[in-house]
């Protein structure tokens, strides 16, 4: 992401978070003055954060300003950002969160033989690993069956965000596709601001903005979330309905790489379906 684009993302993000916060939520006394804009005014954010209005306005205008950790923490408190939004704010400002292990992440996305063995031994549970660009770098055999992964996938087909928004099979695979897609986009957004020197992110976003009406509609909302665990319901053409929980883990050898493992929800018949598939394929 080029610096000019990153600054615009920071400006847009600050505006969306300012406009969603009411004066009452920010601890300001309500008055009868008619407000021409929703949420807080710029001068209110500046005053509550202990910074000048001119300086804060420059931030929202995407100007080239170096932001200190202290100011970012103050803005996070004023705008009542949650931990994921706070992390995203720091990333867009070109800073790592204090103590964030991802600031020391390695650049290689080759998985070790030990990780390959772990994936293979999880033969009952779909599991895969994505890299810093959200491309699938490794998966096990049952994940290939459930999600349609193939060795001959091109770069775009390996990207989980591209697959979610651009592949019709995925719209059919996920029972509540809209909710799942929004959640994944919010997760991806938290990564988007972390790699300002990688133009690949900007290229992907530009293509999706042109190609997907849902992506074009949801991307400007700046929703961000890290979701290490949750639930998804799938409809597989061969296995039927699969109700699964998922858990995600950062790899110790490279914190920008994530392993996700899907496990069946109890009393849904999903375990039996996965087991039948696993036994047939062994």
TrEMBL record:
Pfam families: HTH_31, MLTR_LBD
InterPro entries on file: Cro/C1-type_HTH, Lambda_DNA-bd_dom_sf, MLTR_LBD
Superkingdom per UniProt: Bacteria
A single MF term (Gene Ontology): DNA binding
Limits of the HTH cro/C1-type domain: 13-86
SUPFAM superfamilies membership: lambda repressor-like DNA-binding domains (SSF47413)
Name listed for the protein in its UniProt record: HTH cro/C1-type domain-containing protein
The organism of origin for this protein: Paenibacillus durus (Paenibacillus azotofixans)
